[in-house]
Design goal:
The chain is mostly helical. It has a single domain, classed as Ribosomal Protein S7, CATH 1.10.455.
């Protein structure tokens, strides 16, 4: 590696909730640099969540994101011509980004009318420990558990 490591950019908290996590989520949700559209979708989704659950939308979102956050992942490693899936801990920063990515990915695949409705559905499902994003986390943990025998190959 010749070049120095890239500096971590500091995100500003979002204007409505004053939360950096919300900004991260909106940035991942955004298409073509249309941040205002992405934030509108997100805020509308939180309103729908608040109506459905009769709880604070932001709290339900944070609970859902925590439920989707993985603790371990499997990484491929070649040892002596064979490729092994090696379970490893996930860095705190990567945990959050994986959870956000999965939640948005599976929200987009849902069958509801608007993106706000889809996102709200995924957030509610994740907070109840169900839904596709939560299943992805469970599958990741199951894979790591199944390949625990190869953890001595860790680098």
């Amino acid at each position: 590696m010749r070049k120095s490591k890239a500096k971590k950019r500091i995100l500003l908290p979002d204007p409505k909730f004053h939360d950096v996590l919300v900004t991260r989520f909106v940035n991942n949700l955004m298409y073509d640099g249309k941040k205002s559209a992405a934030s509108e979708v997100f805020y509308e989704a939180l309103e729908v969540v608040a109506k459905r659950t009769s709880e604070d939308g932001l709290e339900v979102f944070k609970k859902g994101l925590a439920n989707v956050t993985p603790q371990v992942e499997v990484r491929s490693r070649r040892v002596g011509g064979a490729t092994f899936q090696i379970p490893s801990e996930v860095r705190p920063d990567k945990k959050i980004s994986m959870a956000i990515r999965w939640m948005i990915l599976y929200a987009r695949k849902r069958n509801e009318k608007s993106m706000a409705q889809k996102l709200a559905g995924e957030i509610v499902a994740a907070s109840k420990e169900e839904g596709a994003a939560f299943k992805k986390k469970e599958d990741t943990h199951r894979m790591a558990e199944a390949n625990k025998a190869f953890s001595h190959f860790r680098f």
